User: Fold this.
Amino acid sequence: MGEPVRASRRERGVPAVTPAPPPDLLAAPGYGARRLYQAYLAAWNRHVDPVLTGPQFAVLSAVRAYPGSDQSSLAGAVALDTSTMADLCRRLESRGLIRRVESPRDARRKLLSLTEEGQTVLARVNRRARKLDRALLAGDDIADDVDIAALLNALGARWEAVAATEDLR
Assistant:
């Protein structure tokens, strides 16, 4: 009548063993990037804001820096494709954090500005985000030798160029 039911390791009192990542994964830059991003998301949700996402924060920051710019132009500045940017901006608008108005010259273009609530939320979240940045870079010998943010941005630019390349050599 089938196989007998086996007790799980936990039920048998045997501690679960988490295997270490295989060496080929540890040598893969994509694995390291994904691991960093997963850790960053967890830290963001715990220490910065569990509702406002990092991409939403980036859009609010860009709108603050370039008020009146259109959402398509700002998409590249915050590393989002235009359809994701449009969806994200609709959500920020529905939350009352930004205003989107049609351009007087082209009704298809949406010009963005922060609302008062958006300015308040951005200021609050920005303080927490900078605190997280300091914690992420603190107490590490690497941070003393390398500008990690500059390195990550340089890698991002390089990886974007590779992604756009037709043929890897």
User: Anything to note?
Assistant: The beta strands are 98-102, 110-114. The chain is about 60% helix and 5% strand.
